[in-house]
Amino acid sequence: MTVLVSYKLVEVAFSDAIRILDKQFGEGYAKKNPQLIASLSQIILDNSPSDSGVSDPSGTEQPVDQLDHDLMILYSAYADYENKIISSQDVIHKMRDYYYQSDCGMGYDEWQVQLTQ
User: Is the N end or the C end of the chain the one with fewer CB atoms within 10 Å?
Assistant: First the structure.
């Protein structure tokens, strides 16, 4: 499902992401970690109704607790990257697998295998 997102909705998601990050990790944390702002903004947009009133493809809205959980998963992956435990590519794969697992009940690689069967 393709949904056009207005500039205002993106601006609100961006502001919310900054507020959430600073509240969770201390004032100024978001400014020092712009990649987390972008990732959290995307999570917020993915879980918000569009301007047209159409919800996400599943027709549900996730509660704030789910966004907090998503943020902690993202933060954990980024912390591992900052500590040189995993590469930036591993962060991307970890987040991709997390979302496929929560949406499809299986990791990305499992999902790909199922598509080819």
Answer: C
